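Q: What structure does this chain adopt?
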Amino acid sequence: MIHDELHKLEKLVHQASKKLLHLTEENDQLKSRLTEMEGELGKKEQEIEHFKNKIKISNIVDNRPENSGDSAEMSELINNYIQEIDHLITYLSE
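A:
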């Protein structure tokens, strides 16, 4: 009788340890995935900020009052700055 009870308890302990191992592995996988997703989210947030800044600069150029022919020159200069910033962001992201 006691032997049967011990055998049942050993079986339960074995099942519980297998379940614990499985849950531990699953937890590690989920933590790894969470870290990946947080990294991707950070990159996307940087891209959004970059595009917001681009839009702000474009709006400044578009809303600038026109004074003779220097408007096109100013637009080109700002576009060159934007392109240079884009290159720097790409370089720093690598």
